[in-house]
Amino acid sequence: MAVEIEMRARFTKEIHDHLVTRLKADGEDLGPDDKHVYFYVLPDQLLKVTDNTAAGTAKITLKGSKIGQGAAFAETEFAIVPADVPAAVKVFNALGFETTMHEAFNFRHNFRLDDVEIAVKWSEAWGYHAEFEVLLEDGASDAARAEAEAKITDVATALKVTLMTEQELTDFTAAFEAAERERKEREQQAPPIR
Length: 194
Hints:
This protein is α+β, with helices and mostly antiparallel strands. It is 35% helix and 39% strand. The mean pLDDT is 89.
């Protein structure tokens, strides 16, 4: 198991374009990484089935906390073949997680700058945004975690990107989850099409 130190930012298309230009000039271009993600928002965890369409791979990931509950995420993941993505979704839905499931397509491009991986993304739910990440070994000390957070903050500052606070993340994800619940309720109440 690894520990992911992750921070996020949301921004306009103009900032997105400037960020991509800057990262192509100053960072290491890791390439496109588009993903079709089925994610299950559990009380204190996040479960994901990811079809990495750009790479032709897939995986199941369990994050030990939700977005807005700190920057450190214990993460367990294992690879599956892309053809098994529908079966994995079916299994999790059959286990009772269907009501917590959300589906999203993420257009993303990955970069690395000063040992920080940066996924510059667009999705319907988040709009233009980025994830700044440093991966640490399981059992990393509090000092190593703090150092990783500081490194992410320094890189974001150098790129002129404002990272979201924990409160902003909590508010954003709560609003998204509430809107998704309302959408699902409307769909269930809609009369059948004849």
